[in-house]
Amino acid sequence: MLNERGEVVETSSANLFWVRDGELWTPSLGTGCLAGITRALVLEAATRLRIRAVEGAATLHVLHEAHEVFLTNSTRGVQPVAELDIHRFAAPGPVTTRLAAAVAESDR
Q1: Residue in 98, 107, 108 with CA at minimum distance from that of residue 48
Q2: What is the DSSP letter of 43?
Q3: Which of 11, 6, 19, 10 is nearest to 66 (CA)?
Q4: Do residues 45 and 103 lie in contact, with contact meaning Cβ atoms separated by under 8 Å?
Q5: Per-domain residue ranges for the chain?
Q6: 15-106 belongs to which homologous superfamily?
Q7: What confidence tens digit (pLDDT) does each residue in 55-79 have?
Q8: Backbone conformation region of residue 22, classed left if phi is above 0, alpha if psi is from -120 to 50, else beta
Q9: Of 2, 31, 54, 77, whose CB count within 10 A is highest?
């Protein structure tokens, strides 16, 4: 979903993350995305794993240039995205794998 400024916000039922050059990105709350529980767990896990996490605004074009994309929600956890439009991604990629494991560990 895009907001009125054409910025990527989230999906209809999940928060959105992408990885580019080893950095984790997600839309900021200022874009209109929901402050999801699993979103917060991923950001906390990134800090623990020393993965730089950036919250900001981005267009759909930025997602097409990502190396990894994944979604989060409370019922499904961390879900890798293999394809968006005609763009394919590592699914799950190495950063997604590390973050998914860390979030699963924090749920125990």
Answers
A1: 98
A2: H
A3: 19
A4: yes
A5: 15-106
A6: D-amino Acid Aminotransferase, subunit A, domain 2 (3.20.10.10)
A7: 999 999 999 999 999 999 999 999 9
A8: left
A9: 31
